[in-house]
Write a structure and sequence with these properties.
about 70 residues, mainly alpha, about 50% helix
């Protein structure tokens, strides 16, 4: 288990560096930002909201990533 937790203020790039397996979780929510140039500057929260989801989905994604292997 990682010593650090993923949070909504991290960029997609930071999240994927810490937890490469998060890509599958993100894609399940329609967030195919992995190869996008914006992934290095857009936070998870910004990306989720830009794709039409709400804060509840942001929290759910953060929880899923943090509890993934």
């Amino acid at each position: 288990m990682s010593q650090s937790s993923i949070n909504k203020d991290m960029t997609f790039g930071e999240i994927l560096q810490m937890k490469p397996g998060a890509a599958q979780i993100l894609m399940r929510y329609g967030l195919h930002c992995i190869g996008c140039h914006i992934a290095v500057s857009e936070t998870l929260e910004q990306g989720v909201m830009a794709h039409g989801h709400d804060q509840a989905v942001v929290s759910k994604i953060v929880d899923e990533i943090n509890h993934s292997a």
